[in-house]
Amino acid sequence: MFVIVVGGGKVGYFLARELIGAGHEVALMERDRARAVQITEEIGSIVIPQDGCEGKYLGQAGANRADIVAAVTGDDEDNLVICQMAKHHFDVPRTIARVNNPKNESLFKHLGVDEIVSPTRMILGSIEADIPVHELLHLAVLGGGELELVEAQLRIGSPAVGVTAGSLNLPDGCSIFAIIRDDRAMSVRSETELQEGDKVIGIGRTECEAELHRILLGDTDSQD
Question: Of 92, 119, 146, which closes a domain?
Answer without folding.
Answer: 119
